[in-house]
Amino acid sequence: MIKSITIIILLLLSSQLISQKEKFDFIELETDKVTSLKTGKYVELIKIVNDTTYRIVGELIDKNDSTVKLEVFVDEVVFKNDSVTFEKSFLYKFDKEQTINSKQFDYIHYENSAGVIGTNLITAGAMTLIIATLASINRSKPNNFNTRKFKNIALPALGVIAIGIPISAFHKNYKLKLIK
After folding, report:
1. Percent helix, strand and coil across the chain, each rounded to 5?
2. Which residue has the higher pLDDT, 50 or 87?
3. Which CATH architecture has domain 21-111?
4. Nearest 5°: phi and psi at 69?
């Protein structure tokens, strides 16, 4: 037993050492604090000109003082005025690497994954509560509800919701710029 636990711990440690990712520092626009992002994080480069927003979405590969290198998934142009919104997206079937100069974008948008994870947990818990209610209705006997069955399904669902709420509280959107 101890031997198998030791092997599992060694495998976990070796996988962490192998998957070390490079960190890049950026400055938050609102607070001027330094924020680090690892390679592989999904970011959006945003350029706003009048009523038009240009957006490039991709995975962070590299960064230096004046450029950001991404594996681009989406190029998007959104034009908005009072009456019309025009959107054109270019999705890439095969990812393409692109090096983008800092003069070509206003800021980098990054959203940490806590919000997505928390929202998914809350949604899953709420859906399970609905399913628990439906599963606990005894259709063969009118006005009969199986409370034991409901508790067995609903209590873990409430636990999942209780876990999801504080996780989603750590959700944060970042507007970043390059450190020069």
Report:
1. 35, 40, 20
2. 50
3. Roll (2.30)
4. -110, 125
